[in-house]
Design goal:
alpha+beta, Aldehyde Oxidoreductase, domain 4, 2 domains, 3-stranded antiparallel sheet, 3-stranded mixed sheet, 27% helix, 18% strand
């Protein structure tokens, strides 16, 4: 583009596929790479920007919900999801093994579906650790399992082969391109889903996590659900 064309109004420009900016109604265009080079070396240095954001949506109705300990009274959009986990329970030892999972989450709009699926699957794996193994053990004020030698997290052999993410898209008007977040929601329901599966399989309702073999074994013994 010439210097004259470079002074066009913003309204005269349009974004094109492949990272280009063009002039509306013409075939004239310039790539983001060329724009960056000119900004970096020809017009005073690299492009620098900053932005701060605190959610500015409608506050929650105090008659319908209670919030304590939060810095502000509005937390963004409501997230929706449903998770189903298939488990096997060894009634002799109390060991719980997750064998399959189906994870449906409303993400508003999946801008990058593959990344969204990875977030959902990753959230399940992290939640699996919370549900079955991860626990800080304290002994008279001293942490007994401070290293990864003693603190169990989800490993490759602990993760079920079948983790099926299900993307549900209901556009959210306040989000970028209609998107919602999916970084944390995938973790939240894993432990409840596994506890529900254990209860459905054995009749033992356990309300404390992690569902260690010892806790499950004791619950089975108390309810008479196990083999002992």
């Amino acid at each position: 583009m010439s210097c004259r064309e470079a002074r066009l109004r913003v309204q005269d420009l349009e974004l094109g596929d492949g990272g280009v900016v063009g002039v509306k109604g013409t075939d004239k265009k310039v790539s983001f790479f060329e724009i960056s080079l000119r900004a970096h070396y020809g017009l005073g240095g690299p492009i620098i920007g900053e932005h701060a954001f605190v959610y500015d949506g409608e506050p929650f109705d105090p008659k319908r919900c209670t919030m304590t300990g939060f810095a502000f009274s509005n937390l963004g959009v409501h997230m929706f999801g449903a998770q189903v986990v298939e488990v096997e329970v060894d009634e002799d030892t109390g060991q719980v093994v997750a064998t399959a999972a189906w994870l449906a989450h409303d993400v508003g709009r999946a801008i990058n579906p593959q990344a969204v699926e990875g977030q959902i699957q990753g959230g399940f794996v992290q939640g699996l650790g919370y549900a079955l193994w991860e626990e800080l053990i304290w002994d008279t004020g001293r942490l007994s399992n401070p290293t990864m030698m003693d603190y169990k997290i989800s490993g490759t052999l602990d993760v079920p082969l079948a983790i099926e993410p299900i993307i549900v898209e209901e556009r959210e008007g306040s989000g970028p391109f209609g998107a919602k977040g999916i970084g944390e929601p995938g973790i939240v329901a894993v432990a409840p889903a596994i506890a529900n599966a254990v209860a459905a399989a054995t009749g033992a309702r356990i309300r404390q996590i992690p569902l260690t073999s010892e806790r499950v074994f004791r619950a089975l013994a108390e309810t008479g659900s196990g083999n002992r």
